[in-house]
Amino acid sequence: MQLSTHDSLSVGEVAARSGYATSALRFYEREGLISAERTDGNQRRFHREVLRRLAFIRAARHVGLTLEEVKAALDSLPHSRTPTKADWSRLSGAWRQRLNAQIESLEALRDGLDGCIGCGCLSLKRCAIQNPDDFAARYGPGANFLPKKLREPVPPEGR
After folding, report:
1. What is the CATH class of 8-94?
2. What tens digit of pLDDT does each residue of 21-72 get?
3. Residue 17, burial from CB neighbour count under 10 angstroms (0-12, 13-18, 19+)
4. What are the DSSP calls for 58-126, one per residue?
5. CB 21 within 8 A of CB 52
6. Residue 44, SS3?
7. pTM
8. What is the pLDDT of residues 109-135, one digit of tens each?
């Protein structure tokens, strides 16, 4: 089905409306997070609903979801209709436990910022308060005193 100009947006219009670079939009399309149709001149045309999907992607990335998790969430949405408030509520409700763990970890980090936060730097070997005799070395590399959630590796964006 060919989109009318009124019902669709060009890649430049989507970029301007969403705040994403056109290269990010092309990447998200390649990854299957958003979709576009092509005009007879092979130009991308997006349904206006793509703006909602892009806002969802931005929110999900800001709370720490990986692109794979975002794709799985978006894949669960109906393709035959615009997602409803209930659809978005179901998706965001699934994040509640994850967000609570992140909030708890960030509060612990915030509350410990005026002292040692277990950054893993060499100064900890000499830190008589938090790490006398470098006992943290037995726990392995990294920031062993940070909350577990904040020690998890952050996946790189894109490929």
Report:
1. mainly alpha
2. 999 999 999 999 999 999 999 999 999 989 988 988 998 888 888 899 889 8
3. middle
4. HHHHHTT--HHHHHHHHHTS-SSS---HHHHHHHHHTTHHHHHHHHHHHHHHHHHTTS------GGGGG
5. no
6. strand
7. 0.64
8. 777 666 655 555 555 555 666 667 777
Domain ranges of the chain: 8-94, 98-150
Region of 41 (left: φ > 0; alpha: ψ -120 to 50; beta: rest) is: alpha
Dmax over CA atoms of the chain, in Å, equals: 71
Q: How far is CA 55 from CA 7, 61, 62, 74, 84, in A?
A: 19, 10, 11, 12, 14
d(CA 73, CA 82): 15
- pLDDT score at 155: 62
User: Which of 86, 74, 89 is CA-nearest to residue 34?
Assistant: 74
